[in-house]
Structures are given as C-alpha cells and as structure tokens.
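Hi support team,

I'm opening this ticket because the web form for multi-chain structure prediction keeps timing out on my end. I have pasted the exact lines I submitted so you can reproduce it. The total is 430 residues across two entries, so I didn't expect it to be a heavy job. Is there a limit I'm missing, or should I split the entries? Thanks in advance, R.K.
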Amino acid sequence: MNYCLVLALLMSMNVIAQKKTQEELREEVIDYSNIQKLLKKDGLEKNAKLKKKIVQQIKVEKQKIQVEKFNYPSKEDFWGFASRMWLVKNAQELKWDVPRPDYGIRERFRKLLEEFGYYNENFKILIVDSPNIAKLALPSTKNESIYVLSLPFMRALDLSKTEISLLLLEDFFRLKSDMFKSNLDVDTSIIGSNFAKAEYNKAALLKILKAYGDVAYKKGFSFQQQYEITKKMDKVLKSSPESWNSYFKLLKKIDQLVKNNLMYKNYLKIYPSPELQIEWLSPKKKVL
Amino acid sequence: MSQLGDYSIQMESLIKFCILAMVFSLPAIGKEKTVGRLYFQEFMGHIHEGPSDTSASLTAIQCSHSLNVIEKDGVNVPVGWMLVRAGEDLGYVRSKFLGEGRPECFQEKYPKFYSKLNLDLADLYYWGRLSDHFIEGESQAR
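Hello R.K., no limit was hit. The queue was backed up. Here is the completed structure from your submission:
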C-alpha cells in the first residue's frame, strides 16, 4: 500500500514537471517574435503603418491650413478688395453715399458691350456727387470692373446715356490693358504672399491705396496710353458709325468743357488731352 | 363730491378709450411668420428700415450672416426685396444679396489679413453702403 502511494506521488510530480509553469507561459506571451509574426499574419502592422501615414498627412494639412490663414489676398481677390477699400476710405471726399439717378446707364452700357462682342463682363458703376473725379475705372476681378462717374461732370456736359456708356467703354479698355495697375507704380509683392512667418505689412497696403489716389487725382494716364485708347476706340467703333460719331462729338464736348470750366481743369492732367484725341481720330488731311 | 364724480367719469372714458385703441390696433400689429433662412452673400451690407437703397440702416451685416425671411400680415414686400429678421432687427435687404448656400467669404478666406485691417465703424458702414449704391450689370451672349 505504501509503495503504491509513493509511486502515485512520483507519477504526479512527473506530470507537473512536464506542464509549463505560469512564469513560462507569461514569458511566451511576451515573446515579441511571436507577436510580430501574428501581427504580420493579421495585417495589423500594415494598418498601423497606414494609420501613421494618415496621421502624418493630417498633421501636414492642418499645418498648411494654419499657414493659409495668414495669406494676403490672391491676385484674383486683391484688386476688387483694394478698389472697394479705396472707395470706402474716400467716401466723404467722393460723396457717393447720396441718392443716385440711374439714367438707364446699366442697360445702355450692357448693350454697348454686347454690341461689340464683350460678353460675360460684370460691371459696377458708382455715381459720385463730386467734381474732383470726372470718371475713373478701378480694377477688380478678371471679368468685373468698377466705374466711378461724377454726377456734376455728367450734368455739366449734359451727357446722353449713349455718351456716358462710351465714356465707360473707354475706361473698360483702359482696365483691359491694365493701365491703371501699371500706373500705380508701387510695390505689389504682398499680393498672394503670406505673413505666417513675417510681420503683417500694413504699410504696403496703405501705399497701394495711396497710389490709387495719386492716379485718380494727380498722375492719371500718359499721352501714349491715351493714344492707344483713342485708337482702340476708333477701331472698335468704326463698325458702328453712329457710335463713332457720338464718341467724336463727346470728345469735342469734353474739350470745350475743360477749356472753359475751371472746375475741370484737372481733367487734362488725368486724361490728356481731348484736343489731341480729336486730332488722332480726325482723318488726315491730304497734302496736294 | 361732484369733483370726485367728474374725475371718475374722466377715468372711465380714458379706460374705454384705451381698450378701444387696443382692439383697433390689434390687426395692425400683424402676425409674423418665418418662411425661410438665407445667407447674406456680399462682403458687407445693411438691413434697411424700408425697401429702398437710401433707406436708413437698422444694422450692418457681414458676409454669410444668417437671416430669417419673414412674412408679416399687412406688409407687402416690393419685388427685389425681402423682409428679414436678424436678432431684434426687422428690416429689408435686396433679394440679390441673399442666397440659400453659405458663401465663400473674403473674411473667412483671409481671416488674419481681414482682422489686421481693423476696420472701424465708419468703414463698416460705408462698405455696406457701397453694395447699395453700385449700379450693377452684366453683358451676356444672346
């Protein structure tokens, strides 16, 4: 009996010895090579890498968005903004916040643009109650232009809506030739740039707005530019003799006004010169 | 005593008058109904007291401002205008300045540049007025 008990004890000890201890099992669980194999088998490592890549991409995008917040307006957005800003800052001087007449300019100018094949052109006309600026076109987006028209100037010339539209058409060509922008003669490098890592350049914007005023009140356009515009008008209007005649008569009216009305003596500084424009349009005399 | 009697008669007629005035003024007050919600599409603008570009401004609004479109009994809104409510202000905005979709605003596109402008109240006022004063048009191929 005793022998039997000893034998059973020895056998059970042998079985225990064959089984793995808890520590051994735990060690097996933390066997990294096993995990790696398992992860690879399940594609989890691949997923983890993908997730890491996505997280990295999100970080980059977030950073990009953060930097973009510091953008100066792009070329497409800047000019419309700057032109409006200039009008806002000069509201009292230009006196545009007054009841305005329509004169049917919208319809006539639209038809004139369409007549000469200028389609999908947006225009915004601002009537000002000041003789300081007779007329002016300000740049905006690619297919938008902003026009300033003086009510006293229109009244002094007793302009018809066709004549007003021809004045606008002249300015439309000036804008299309980028004459206003090129005459600003100011550093415009802030346009489309970024100030995330630099100081906000307020001075640059103020200089551009000041340059707007210089062109509008002092510098205006050169003789060469006026010649180009007059020739452009001549070329375009020739297909419509009625409009061409109206334009010619309009220039004569302006010429008389600037010569006789002191209030508009500044006009010649901005748009030289109606007299020359008439000459450029007039058929050349044949020398016999 | 007779003075007191006169006083009570005066008071009575005054109360009667007040009740009558209230009864007759009820239809004029009119019911207000919100019929939609639209977003202001321009950079800046105004809610006008009346349906006219030159009408006084009740308040200035900015691009993507959400406005409740209102229908009110006894109020005929002219074509091209909408009666809107923004907070406590009930006034008029030109329909062409309103849209169903949230616009991409300059203020949101260039937030830091815009905040650095430090536009004062006069600037905001005039900027809003600018949209009212523009004579707008577009040439189209026919």
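A quick check on our side: Strands of chain A lie at 122-128, 135-139, 144-150. Let us know if the file doesn't open in your viewer.
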